[in-house]
Design a protein that fits this description.
The protein has 339 residues and is an alpha+beta fold. It has helices at 2-21, 37-70, 88-118, 232-244, 253-262, 297-305, 307-310, 323-334, and strands spanning 128-135, 138-143, 148-151, 153-157, 161-168, 173-177, 181-186, 194-199, 206-212, 224-230, 268-269, 272-273, 288-289, 293-294. It is an enzyme of class 7 (translocase). The chain crosses the membrane at residues 46-69, 90-111.
Length: 339
């Protein structure tokens, strides 16, 4: 008896902890707090499916409890209960009811699926187009109309419909912004592009978190990005500042020299540099190093010194720089800010 009571206490403690953890979460990374039209409609589908499941669960448990109590074996009664089978009404009910429930769930799901896919491309004159490319383990964002390319941070104007073209530079990834839209795969190859759309909602000066939702390698869990929604005026200013940026935005000449010698072949700053690595234009204005670390000098130096320690399996090579050179190039990168 004492052992049973001890187990009961642990069960009660576990239930309390589970209830407490239900209140935890990040409102900028939650499909349960939709911030746009697409996210809201997907949330409504979730509510329909959960409601149906709860209804079925309640009915099953009620019937189970009823049968358990009504037909339980009574003390001193050793007779065999009457055997009942072949009730056509019951068979009809448990066949028709699930079909009706599936129809209730299927009709809005199919309608939303066609709605979300049929309107995914192309963008009209007053809408925004973005090309998203997944890399191991970072995101590239191209704005065709604005003629600029960013990485890790997607800046968008509020109250705007965004059409997204999705592809991958290596393996299958999945583009997911829980607060704004469900996930869509990014596939390698030009013929395997996917398309989606979402709207940015009415809130401004807010940052939503994005994730890769497809297992893509050792650092899949670290493949984060940010979506920053700003006012339309601030968006225009951001585009103008990004286009005006160049590799001379920093006063650190020593760091710039180290960067140009060792990093510019892969990374672009302004209109200069390669395109195999993330663009570092406006790096000083970002709030994360490698998409996951706090944006400070120590974390930047840690990333430059040994990228594999921070993100195992990523494609950034370990550059043989002295501590003084790493310090200088870190100062240079943190000084790269938009005008």
């Amino acid at each position: 008896m004492k052992k049973w009571l001890q187990k009961g206490r642990f069960l009660s403690l576990f239930a309390m902890l589970a209830l407490l953890l239900m209140g935890c979460g990040d409102p900028t990374l939650s499909a349960l707090i939709p911030q746009g039209e697409v996210a809201d409609k997907q949330f409504q589908l979730m509510l329909i499916s959960i409601s149906i499941m709860i209804l079925v669960l309640v009915v099953v448990f009620v019937l189970y409890a009823f049968v358990l109590l009504k037909f339980r074996k009574k003390k001193g009664d050793n007779s065999t209960p009457k055997q009942v089978e072949g009730n056509h009404m019951l068979e009809l009910l448990w066949t028709v009811i699930p079909i009706l429930l599936l129809i209730i769930l299927a009709v809005p799901t199919v309608m939303r699926t066609f709605e979300f896919s049929a309107d995914a491309k192309p963008a009209s004159k007053n809408e925004l187009s973005i090309k998203v490319t997944g890399h191991q383990y970072w995101w590239e964002f191209e704005y065709p109309k604005e003629e600029l390319i960013t990485s890790q941070e997607l800046v968008l104007p509020a109250d705007t419909k965004v059409h997204v073209e999705l592809s991958s530079a290596d393996v299958i990834h999945s583009f997911w912004i829980p607060s704004l839209a469900g996930k869509t795969d990014t596939n390698p190859g030009d013929k395997n592009k996917n398309y989606m759309w979402f709207d940015t909602g009415s809130k401004t000066d807010v940052v939503y978190k994005g994730k890769c939702a497809e297992l893509c390698g050792a650092s899949h869990a670290l493949m984060d990005f940010k979506v920053r929604v700003v006012s339309k005026e601030d968006y225009k200013n951001w585009v103008a500042g990004y286009k005006a940026a160049d590799d001379k935005s920093s006063a650190n000449a020593d760091g710039q020299q180290v960067f140009e010698k060792n990093c510019l072949s892969c990374h672009a700053v302004g209109q200069n540099g390669g395109n195999t690595g993330p663009s570092l234009t406006g790096f000083g204005d970002k709030d994360r190093v490698a998409g996951i670390l706090e944006h400070d000098k120590e974390n930047l130096k840690k990333w430059i010194k040994d990228p594999q320690e921070v993100k195992p399996g990523n494609n950034m090579p370990k550059v043989n720089l002295s501590d003084e050179e790493i310090d200088a190039v870190s100062d240079y990168l943190l000084g790269l800010k938009l005008k």
